[in-house]
Design a protein that fits this description.
By secondary structure, the chain is an alpha+beta fold. 46% of the residues lie in helices and 10% in strands. The protein has one domain: Cytochrome P450 (Cytochrome p450), CATH 1.10.630.10. It has 17 helices and 9 strands. The protein has a 4-stranded mixed β-sheet, sandwiched between helices. A 3-stranded antiparallel β-sheet has the order 3-9-8. The protein has a two-stranded antiparallel sheet with strand order 5-6. A hairpin with a 2-residue loop joins strand 5 and strand 6. Helix 5 packs parallel to helix 17, helix 8 crosses helix 9 and helix 14 crosses helix 17.
Length: 411
């Protein structure tokens, strides 16, 4: 973004600039400025952005769309996949991420059977084993990159095992999903957009091959369950099945990596809160909610207005791309109080964070992510007194943001 789009301090001249130097390392001062100066912000690049808790929550629970067919004004920063036909859209636009009711309701009903509370709770022993094995390796080595050793492998392994993805595919799949998640970033350059489309096609082909193999070789896994999923005679088409598997695979680990790594970093930077969790392990469930609030794993969530949307006395027209800034809402002092920028694991209303969305589009895998985080944070602080942080490097993303590297020395 050019210099003339850098933020200024009057509402008339202010333009939110997520491309400013240092933004991806610490966006929160920028979000505070956005909330204060332009809480309902029409950006010159062709989108609107909401940043206050009340407004974000209102939009999440509204009936506005996630389907790009309703766009009458394409944002300048939007990936060019929107103009190249559905075969070039991520997952062909068929995942529950891109569907409105009633089709969203139908797809979610077929997919959600694998994410019931009972099904998720049954995974806890396996998650505990994976976490303990990682902590053993870290303790033996004396130092580690927590992203590479724990925050990434845990959710990646869990969702891979849930889906029944053959181990032989994992290395390439990790590369492809890492590319695809960048489709959620604004203003991808043409070369990256081409890489995203190529990764989309390749992952589609791999998942199609795996699902075809599963038809003849069923197992105790999510792909097999989705192949058999039926409700009143309704089943997923082949393209719908592939889209849901791709979505679950990507969503099942990419955002959880940020929750785990960002949460561990927050604890290490706040030793008083780390000690509190050590002394009061019963706080673990609430601690996860506070981590979700304090450093949100996914910062932006979009809607397309299907009718004028009134907020704070302003009216957003029909057919506009509207971004809810979840990370800004999660630190809005008008809702959270004067200590909104502070980490407080015993914050009584931490569960009211907006990190997993709300309404019909509430995150399908929220319970699984919470379980993985609770086990990780609890066992980490029980195992290590207060590791020293050697290096932190952020992943450079605006939306799906978190540490790319978190090197520690354990004691």
């Amino acid at each position: 973004m050019t210099d003339n789009l850098l933020p200024h301090h009057t509402e008339e001249a202010f333009v939110f600039n997520p491309f400013a130097d240092g933004f991806t390392d610490n966006p929160y001062p920028h979000y505070a400025e956005l909330r204060t100066i332009a809480p309902v912000h029409e950006h010159p690049l062709g989108f609107w952005i909401l940043s206050r808790y009340e407004d974000v929550s209102k939009l999440q629970r509204s009936g506005h769309s996630v389907d790009e067919q309703y766009l009458t004004h394409l944002p300048a920063w939007k990936s060019d996949s929107s103009t190249l036909g559905k075969e070039n859209r991520l997952m062909r636009g068929l995942s529950i991420l891109d569907q409105d009711p009633p089709n969203h309701t139908r797809l979610r009903r077929l997919v959600s059977k694998a994410f019931t509370r009972r099904a998720v709770d049954a995974l806890e022993p396996r998650i505990e084993t994976l976490v303990d094995e990682a902590l053993d390796r870290i303790a033996e080595a004396g130092r580690a990159d927590l992203v590479a050793e724990l925050a990434f492998p845990l959710p990646f392994t869990v969702i891979s095992e849930m889906l029944g993805i053959p181990v032989v595919e994992h290395t390439r799949l990790r590369e492809l999903t890492g590319t695809l998640v960048r489709a959620l970033e604004p203003l991808a350059d043409p070369r990256l957009q081409a890489e995203i489309r190529s990764a989309n096609h390749e992952l589609t082909a791999i998942v199609r091959e795996v699902t075809n193999w599963k038809r003849d070789n069923p197992g105790d896994d999510l792909i097999t369950a989705l192949l058999a999923a039926e409700h009143d005679g309704d089943m997923l088409s082949e393209d719908e099945l592939i889209a849901q598997v791709m979505f679950l695979y990507i969503a099942g680990h990419e955002s959880t990596v940020n929750l785990l790594a960002g949460g561990l970093l927050a604890l290490l930077r706040h030793p008083d809160q780390l000690r509190l969790l050590q002394e009061e392990p019963g706080l673990a469930t609430n601690a996860v909610e506070e981590m979700l609030r304090y450093d949100t794993p996914v910062h932006l969530m979009r809607r397309i207005t299907i009718e004028p949307f009134s907020v704070h006395g302003e009216e957003i027209p029909t057919g506009r791309w509207v971004l809810s800034c979840l990370a800004a809402a999660n630190r809005d002092p008008e809702f959270w109080g004067a200590d909104a920028d502070e980490l407080r694991l015993n914050r009584p209303n931490a569960h009211q964070n907006v990190s997993f969305g709300a309404g019909v589009h509430h995150c399908l895998g929220a319970a699984l992510a919470r379980l993985e985080a609770r086990v990780t944070f609890t066992r980490f602080v029980q195992r290590f007194h207060l590791p020293a942080v050697e290096e932190v490097r952020w992943n450079g993303r605006i939306n799906v943001r978190g540490p790319a590297k978190l090197s520690i020395v354990v004691r």
